[in-house]
Design goal:
This is Excisionase family DNA binding protein. It comes from Hydrogenispora ethanolica. Pfam families: HTH_17. The chain is mainly α and 124 residues long. It has one domain. A three-stranded antiparallel sheet has the order 1-3-2. A hairpin with a 5-residue loop joins strand 2 and strand 3. Helix 3 crosses helix 4. The longest helix is centred in the first third of the chain and has 20 residues.
Length: 124
């Protein structure tokens, strides 16, 4: 079980209540499980450990809603923040800059050939 909390989540009392409720849910699950202890690690995330759904959507040229659906359906491993947003582990997709670079190269190639004569012009 994982939970990501960002600064803006801590600013609203309602969201803090959701965080506390989620923590209590984890504690309740512990009481019915075979585990003896619950370990909670709190640490700041400084590196790009997670992507937002919009970043994945842009990289793969799909809608943000589609990425959220994939998260809900379990097609993408993701964690939902107490505020309801999805965070996707960066390790799952690697370096998105390579995907973006590939798309840019493809667009450049396509733009070079967009003004080329069509097949019907060669048949004349």
């Amino acid at each position: 079980m994982s939970m990501i909390v960002v600064k803006k989540d801590l600013q609203k009392a309602e969201t803090r209540k959701k965080i506390a409720a989620r923590f209590l849910q984890y504690a309740d699950e512990l009481t019915v499980s075979a585990a003896e202890e619950l370990q909670i690690d709190i640490y700041p995330v400084t590196a790009k450990a997670y992507y937002k759904t919009a970043e994945i959507a842009t990289a793969f040229q799909v809608s943000d809603r589609m990425v959220r659906k994939w998260c809900e359906q379990g097609k993408i491993q993701a964690i939902q923040t107490p505020g309801g947003a999805w965070r996707i582990p960066a390790a799952q997709f690697g370096d998105l800059s390579k995907v973006r670079a590939f798309q840019e190269t493809t667009e450049q190639i396509n733009s070079r050939f967009s003004n080329s004569p069509g097949i019907d012009e060669f048949e004349r």
